[in-house]
């Protein structure tokens, strides 16, 4: 296991700043662009990350510490942002995510988790038994996956602008599965 | 065509800040991680972006304005960073990229390009005839592609840490082609 809490936290703490650098005041043309059909825009993704802060990662961490695997986690609603973000300003969402993440990292640190805690088990409603370190690692990877997704969505906004460069810029040919 | 210079510049100006938010002082374990075999680490990618600032995008813009399609661009060396970055500190590379990008955007703005200029043609050594707006759009997409790549490389550093979550975190199953 290479998981270390301080390293995981160092990545989790960066995400709001990364998203603000990439997206704050970027304009609606970029923030609401998506990859077609029912794919997600940066606006949708930031709403999804907010819902994760409110209901998923830290909540499940506390659930494991309190209940172990006896009571499964509440299922996560992957579509909550379509209701929750309705009518909201994108910059407000970015600020809200930043505030929630800072609060959650502060709480996470206050739990003073030990190496023994990382082996504690929880019950995921879809995946079955998981450990606390797997949950915290998945939180990190989930952030990074969505940063990559947002970069790809922004790139695809220029899909028809690059002409023959399409063949070199492989990100343009990626089909989303998220 | 949806290309607009001020929008392209707004994305290009963000990249150094995005990379510093994601990577500055992140530690060697993350900055030198790659996706196996001869794939690139964040350290390699930032070196590649520096080489692009020195020899590719703005240089080719000026080449189009000066020579049109008569003289092809110099071929771009995709592997220059392996020599150029040798022995360098990662944080110095991030700062160097930031400085070069700021300088290049300043020069780009000073060219006062018009809509007519965007149609001017250049000769790419591999892709054939391209326009200036395609070149500038490709610069934007190239940045975003490498931000996505770096996020993916960082995510994969935790590939074996997430346990059963692998099946939900599709970024972990992506095989690089860059």
TrEMBL record, chains A, B:
InterPro entries tied to this protein: DinB-like (IPR024775), DinB/YfiT-like (IPR034660)
Domain of life according to the entry: Bacteria
Domain (DinB-like): residue spans on this chain: 12-150
Pfam families the record matches: DinB_2 (PF12867)
Protein name as it appears in the record: DinB family protein
Species of origin: Flagellimonas allohymeniacidonis
Phylogenetic lineage: Bacteria, Pseudomonadati, Bacteroidota, Flavobacteriia, Flavobacteriales
């Amino acid at each position: 296991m290479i998981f270390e809490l301080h390293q995981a936290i160092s990545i989790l703490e960066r995400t709001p700043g990364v998203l603000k650098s990439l997206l704050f005041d970027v304009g609606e043309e970029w923030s609401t662009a998506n990859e077609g059909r029912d794919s997600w825009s940066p606006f949708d993704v930031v709403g999804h990350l907010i819902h994760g802060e409110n209901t998923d990662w830290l909540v499940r961490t506390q659930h494991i510490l309190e209940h172990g695997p006896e009571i499964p986690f509440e299922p996560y609603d992957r579509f909550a942002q379509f209701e929750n973000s309705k009518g909201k300003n994108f910059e407000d969402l970015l600020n809200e995510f930043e505030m929630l993440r800072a609060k959650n990292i502060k709480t996470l640190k206050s739990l003073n988790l030990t190496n023994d805690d990382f082996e504690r088990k929880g019950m995921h409603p879809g995946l079955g038994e998981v450990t606390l370190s797997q949950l915290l690692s998945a939180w990190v990877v989930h952030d990074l996956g969505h940063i990559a997704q947002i970069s790809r969505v922004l790139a695809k906004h220029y899909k028809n602008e690059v002409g023959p460069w399409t063949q070199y810029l492989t990100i343009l040919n990626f089909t989303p599965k998220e």
